[in-house]
Write a sequence for this structure.
């Protein structure tokens, strides 16, 4: 299952607040600056070598790019006062400062690896706590700005790619069922629950009364079951509908390598199909092409950031196809399409 | 039955939610249900439900507002509209009112996860002892007396070092 590319990334977020300062909704600039300084100092005392970026010093383009790479949240990007982020050199850890809470530690790993994310986040949490006093309530645990995060302050989420379930119109039913288990499902990149590129995020709803390990275990089990359903559906399509499926994948390849311009939404859908084709060995690629990374690269903010200049939407749509085409043709093999 | 939100009209929409095995029921009149329709359609959103319940808990007539949080100045009204704490002490200020709401949203009323070393301090030891006492009880029930004796010794040791 791990090799199928269904589970893309795992992420843990821990929300914390400093006891001695008012929370972001109430604090003034000076307090905000002190929070940034205290946490930055705590990290600096180690040899972690994190990079501090203050939101007020960043351009919109840079902020959008950080957002599309899931290193900061839309809320932090819009933060007009003392929002900041600390980034680890490998970008696996990002610590958002003065977002909804003073501190939000986020860790990222590829594949299904919530335990590894928790180990890493837990360590960073300990490092910070050596120098600051967290707001903690004996009954209710870590005090967060919003009572919906109180307790562990933890959100464990996994990004999964479900093209086969989407093509066969099974996602709505499945995801509705999953949401009955106290688990939230939302689309990635899309608005609300709408999904782009058949990517979905599964995360825990509750944060109180259950230990971090138990929550992680629960999400892991649920994700495994969904991935298993996706795998079985792929198997079914291969055995019963292979002409149809191959046609879809080849058409997607044809469009992506020949079109002149393309919107994010269309490109996401087509790359998703190519990704499915690659994983089901319908299409063969030379080298280590990372199609999920390609999906990230062609987001509007990242396009602007890597191109380094302002572009009109039509120019962006053209640039998007150039990037995709380049990537696909660079990894072409002789018998790319059987 | 009257609407559990406005308390004025007859409840016609009945919503049952089971979160983490805890069942919550709300009975709404057509008007109040309409207000919630967006959130029903979009699936269950914890934040939206929370602020609705919060409003409900804080607007009961039995409740008379007193002064807000002494540390950050957050008033009840402010808390009601933002749904966010202004500082670490707000939780004590609003706890009494908040507990039923937290309980029904989260399905639990006490933290069982990580405890910070510094802020937790002796509290962590207390929780650990509670855990061990539970294990001791289990060992005795299973008649694993050797194991029980070891746990008992450990509890003694921890209590002496407290």
């Amino acid at each position: 299952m791990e090799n199928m590319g269904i589970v893309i990334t795992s992420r843990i977020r821990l929300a914390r607040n400093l006891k001695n300062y008012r929370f972001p909704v109430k604090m003034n600039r000076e307090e905000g600056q002190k929070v940034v300084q205290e946490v930055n100092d705590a990290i600096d005392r180690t040899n972690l070598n994190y990079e501090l970026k203050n939101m007020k010093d960043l351009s919109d383009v840079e902020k959008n790019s950080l957002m599309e790479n899931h290193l900061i949240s839309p809320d932090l990007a819009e933060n007009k006062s003392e929002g900041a982020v600390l980034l680890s050199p490998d970008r696996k850890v990002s610590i958002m400062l003065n977002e909804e809470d003073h501190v939000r530690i986020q860790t990222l790993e590829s594949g299904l690896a919530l335990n590894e994310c928790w180990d890493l986040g837990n360590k960073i949490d300990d490092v910070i706590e050596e120098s600051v006093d967290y707001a903690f309530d004996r009954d209710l645990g870590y005090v967060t700005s919003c009572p919906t995060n109180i307790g562990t302050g933890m959100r464990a989420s996994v990004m999964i790619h479900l093209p086969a379930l989407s093509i066969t119109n099974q996602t709505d039913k499945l995801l509705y069922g999953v949401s009955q288990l106290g688990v939230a499902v939302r689309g990635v990149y899309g608005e609300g629950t709408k999904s782009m590129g058949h990517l979905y995020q599964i995360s825990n709803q509750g944060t109180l009364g259950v230990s971090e390990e138990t929550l992680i275990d629960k999400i892991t089990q649920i994700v495994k079951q969904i991935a298993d359903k996706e795998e079985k559906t792929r198997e079914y399509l291969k055995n019963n509908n292979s002409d149809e499926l191959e046609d879809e994948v080849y058409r997607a390849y044809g469009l992506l390598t020949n079109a002149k311009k393309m919107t994010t939404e269309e490109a996401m859908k087509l790359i998703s199909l190519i990704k499915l084709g690659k994983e089901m060995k319908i299409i063969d690629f030379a080298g280590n092409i990372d199609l999920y990374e390609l999906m990230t690269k062609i987001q509007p903010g990242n396009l602007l950031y890597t191109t380094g200049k302002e572009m009109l939407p039509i120019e962006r749509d053209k640039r998007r196809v150039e990037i995709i085409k380049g990537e696909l043709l660079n990894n072409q093999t002789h018998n790319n399409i059987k | 039955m009257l609407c559990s939100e406005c308390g004025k009209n007859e409840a016609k929409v009945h919503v049952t939610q089971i979160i983490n095995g805890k069942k919550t029921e709300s009975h709404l009149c057509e008007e109040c249900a309409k207000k919630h329709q967006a959130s029903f359609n979009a699936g269950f959103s914890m934040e939206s439900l929370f602020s609705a319940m919060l409003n409900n808990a804080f607007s009961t007539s039995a409740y008379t507002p007193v002064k807000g949080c002494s540390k950050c100045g957050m008033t009840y009204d402010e808390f009601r509209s933002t749904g966010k704490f202004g500082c670490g002490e707000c939780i004590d200020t609003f706890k009494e009112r908040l507990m039923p709401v937290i309980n029904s949203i989260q399905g639990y009323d006490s933290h069982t996860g990580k405890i910070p070393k510094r802020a937790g301090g002796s509290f962590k030891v207390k929780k650990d002892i509670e855990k061990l006492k539970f294990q001791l009880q289990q060992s005795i029930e299973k008649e694993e007396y050797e194991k029980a004796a070891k746990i008992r010794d450990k509890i003694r040791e921890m209590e002496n070092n407290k």
